[in-house]
Amino acid sequence: MNEAKDEFASLNAAEYLYLRGISEPRDNSLRIVVQEATANLASTGPLELPGMSASLRTSRAAPIESTATCKAFALYWSRYIAYLVTEESVGSCGNYKDEIFTGRFFRVYEKSHLLDHIARDTGAHFKPFQHYKIICLNHLIDVVSTEVPELEVIQASKPSPVQ
């Protein structure tokens, strides 16, 4: 497990992440692309949205976005057991105090509700499986697999749009 922790340190060190892509390159394989994002201080300005209360308005808001210096990360599982993509605002509202994990944006779970579900409601697992979660500003991505994903760091040359 320390190998995974060291390998994913740069992913966990990001200021923020956005999900940029998710695909199944072949049956039962999974590729997830996330990109760093940061408070873009070069675009600081007033924040006043329709319907926003006066107490939330500010003259010094900076958008959180991917800039030219932000890296992207491609994570690849050659096989997975299950994955779940949840819209961030609804996925952050549950009770998860009994779960045990390490990592910040790339979490590796020792105990989780999803692990309990997989153990209870699926079968035919010949190897131990692991729960991984990627925390992004726009989505939460849970992956259960018998293998640690491969990680490719992609140096950004231009920002990707939020999709």
Provide the fold topology.
Elements lengths: L1 H6 L1 H4 L3 E8 L6 E10 L5 E3 L10 E4 L2 E2 L6 E6 L4 E6 H4 L8 E3 L3 E6 L1 H9 L8 E6 L3 E7 L4 E5 L9
Antiparallel strand pairs: 1-2, 2-5, 2-6, 3-4, 6-12, 7-11, 8-9, 9-10, 10-11
Order of helix and strand elements from N to C terminus? HHEEEEEEEHEEHEEE
Largest sheet at a glance?
5 strands, antiparallel
Shape: globular
Mean pLDDT: 85
Helical segment tally? 4
Number of domains: 1
Structural class: mainly beta
What key attributes describe this structure?
single chain; 163 residues; mainly beta; 4 helices; 12 strands
Describe it for me?
The model has no long low-confidence stretch (mean pLDDT 85). The protein has one domain (2-41, 59-154). It is mainly β. The strands form three sheets. Strands 1, 2, 5, 6 and 12 form a five-stranded antiparallel β-sheet that branches. 14% of the residues lie in helices and 40% in strands.
Question: Care to give the gist of this entry?
Answer:
By secondary structure, the protein is mainly beta.
